[in-house]
Amino acid sequence: MWTHAPWQGRFVPHRLPPGERLRAYASWCNAVEGNTTFYAIPARGTVETWADQTDPDFRFVLKLPRSITHERRLGDVGAELRSFLHAIEPLGPRAHALWIQLPPAFAPADVGVLAGFLRRLPPSHRYAVEVRHRAFFENESATRLLEKALAGVGAEWIPFDTTALFQTPPTSDMEREAWTKKPRVARRTVALTDRPIVRYIGRDSVDRTVEGWRGWADQVAQWLREGRSPTVFIHTPDNADALLLARRFHDDVRARLPEVEPLPEPMRAPSEPPTLF
């Protein structure tokens, strides 16, 4: 996500070499979703450049390759998993969690397969699971079944909150596209570990996006009071303003909990300061 085209020249300088693009992003936000690892295992040398561009406390939440989660459905994946873990090793503590995003067809009947897979994973990493089957959000016994499997190995459940997106009909092409691709499930605010992870998607409208996350700002402040260390990713259908919105969410949490440290001043493109208004 750190090379999103609409950010170039607006938030970060144009035509940065590959070895500097993540560094520019990391001046704005202190965590990133590793979506590219879903499509292919990165070269270890590439991952070394990621480590070089970020501080040790920067957080990567890296998605396991789809060959593991979607094609082989967590079965007979030893070789792919070893290759993936070897590739990301240079990140060290920056690999905050390995993200197991499961396909929409992964149902409560498949939880036993997931539990077995999680038990075989090396304890050197933290793991977080995202499910999209509606039964996990609507059926209490399915919810408890998954929570038990995750809690047994100290894994987290990543909620993808799309409730703001689906609250009213879409008003733009990007919102209409998001309606066809994003899961329509109930909001979940339960943390299973001391490192909860939240994915939130709002609307093209800044005001509606901010209004939709107010409950999350309250929840994150409460988690911090409890001694947890949450990670929150802010999306919109086009993600054009995502960097500014992420920092605004951080400020909203600080308004509720002033002892939270502010984010550092970001690297900016050589132009007028970007604004949400």
TrEMBL record:
Give the taxonomic lineage as stored in the record.
Bacteria, Bacillati, Actinomycetota, Actinomycetes, Streptosporangiales
Family annotation (InterPro entries): DUF72, UPF0759_sf
- This one is known as DUF72 domain-containing protein
Segments spanning the bilayer are none
